[in-house]
Write a structure and sequence with these properties.
Blueprint lengths: L1 E5 L13 H12 L3 E7 L6 E5 L2 E6 L15 H4 L3 H21 L5 E5 H12 L7 E5 L2 H8 L1 H13 L2 E4 L2 H9 L6 E2 L19 E4 L8 H13 L6 E4 L5 H10 L6 E5 L7 H4 L4 E4 L8 H8 L4 E4 L15 E4 L4 H13 L3 H15 L2 H17 L1
Helix pairs in contact: 1-14, 3-4, 4-6, 5-6, 8-12, 11-13
Length: 383
């Protein structure tokens, strides 16, 4: 099968976190005998074609190099709010749509990742009558559907045009269905379980992994650590990731007197995340309406118990109360602190996490995810 993939996030270099799960997925599809071409916007003038992991990647120029900063960086939503950003966004959509139009006749199926911008660009290309499109919702795009009537109006035709729609969690599938998608399929993106070592003994404290945005609510975890410290429990806390909230979080850590206790590891290549997970005593994740929570699944694979919130969205597909996870009922630092104490005191927490991790180790293997997506592609082609 010839697969034309479209995305606004994809690795630009080895170790890049942008869309790393997509490269794992497409490499697994190549290993199954499929041909994959990925169309993505260029980044800061770096356009052209290259082959990575057997995948042909076409990076489409759309503006002057200094304005090609919308994709891959996790800042698209903020950038398009400025007049210059909005103009660059329209130029990016035109360029990606033109590339899709050029390549469509050489494809059996199109895979659009995120309804915006990729799904919109594919619809703009006007090739739905020739090539079926499978649309995947990953999280940030579904958040737009939940909070914006305009977004739902824009997304409606994209969802209706798609031959099949997938979502990386049941939470996102429900969001897609409410927005007009027909019978969305729940299909998480792959992890790389083989890079996660066997579970260790713990002892390194609490860890969290994710982009530092308000949606992740990492400040609640910092406040929880301050509460535990006030009770005489000084527990190491490692924050893996970077983002716009890092400065505010560093200031909060300083105000709470936790500078010697909290470590900011910064952005970490996906292959290096397990070295922070394996020695941890617990993985705390305070995100609201998360798309899926791949790092939480990797924590279970590493035998590390989870502490998550009840409004965590897709992460609740992973975090099952009593099955390696503790679910906190409300976004309250005191409740989070109490949950962390319970997990650290529970001798069954780590064995339960190891058992749950065995399931995710199998379910999230790239080959397993690729096989399921292949079936969705075949159904789209038959339709």
């Amino acid at each position: 099968m010839r697969i034309l993939a479209v995305s606004h996030a994809y690795p630009r270099f080895d170790g890049d976190v942008a869309g790393a799960f997509l490269e794992r997925l497409y490499a697994a599809l190549v290993a199954r005998g499929h041909a994959v071409r990925v169309i993505v916007p260029a980044d800061a003038g770096q356009g052209g074609e290259e082959r990575r992991e057997g995948i042909l990647v076409e990076r489409v120029r759309y503006a002057a190099a200094r304005r090609e900063t919308l994709a891959h960086r996790g800042t698209l939503a903020q950038a398009v709010r400025s007049p210059g950003g909005a103009l660059a966004f329209r130029a990016m959509q035109r360029a990606v749509a033109a590339a899709v139009r050029r390549r469509a006749d050489d494809a059996d199926v199109i895979h659009a990742n995120w309804w915006v911008p990729a799904g919109l660009a594919v619809r703009r290309a006007g090739v739905a009558d020739r090539v079926p499109c499978v649309l995947t919702l990953h999280g940030s795009d579904a958040a737009l559907l939940r909070r914006s009537r305009v977004a739902r109006w824009m997304a409606g035709p994209v969802l209706r045009d798609a031959a099949r729609t997938t979502a990386v969690s049941s939470f996102l599938a429900q969001t897609a269905a409410r927005a007009g998608a027909a019978a969305p399929v729940v299909l998480p993106m792959p992890a790389d379980p083989d890079r996660v070592p066997e579970p260790g003994p713990g002892g390194a404290g609490i860890v969290t992994v994710g982009r530092l945005t308000r949606q992740k609510r990492t400040d609640l975890l910092v406040e929880a650590m301050a509460i535990l410290r006030a009770r005489g429990r000084t527990i190491p806390f490692t924050i893996v990731g970077d983002g716009p909230e890092r400065g505010a979080l560093e200031s909060l850590v300083a105000r709470r007197g936790l500078a010697g206790q909290v470590r900011f590891a910064g952005a970490v290549a996906p292959a290096d995340v397990p070295r922070f997970l394996v020695p941890a005593d617990a993985f705390a994740f305070a995100a609201r309406h998360e798309g899926f929570g791949l790092a939480a699944a990797e924590a279970l694979i590493a035998g590390v118990p989870l502490v998550v919130l009840a409004d965590g969205g897709g992460v609740l597909d992973i975090a099952i109360e009593g099955n390696g996870a503790t679910i906190v009922s409300a976004a309250d630092a005191g409740l989070i602190a109490a949950a962390i104490e319970r997990v650290l005191a529970d001798p069954n927490a780590r064995p339960a996490a190891r058992r749950a991790g065995g399931h995710w180790r199998d379910a999230l293997r790239p080959a397993a995810v690729a096989a399921r997506l292949e079936q969705v592609f075949q159904e789209a082609c038959r339709s």
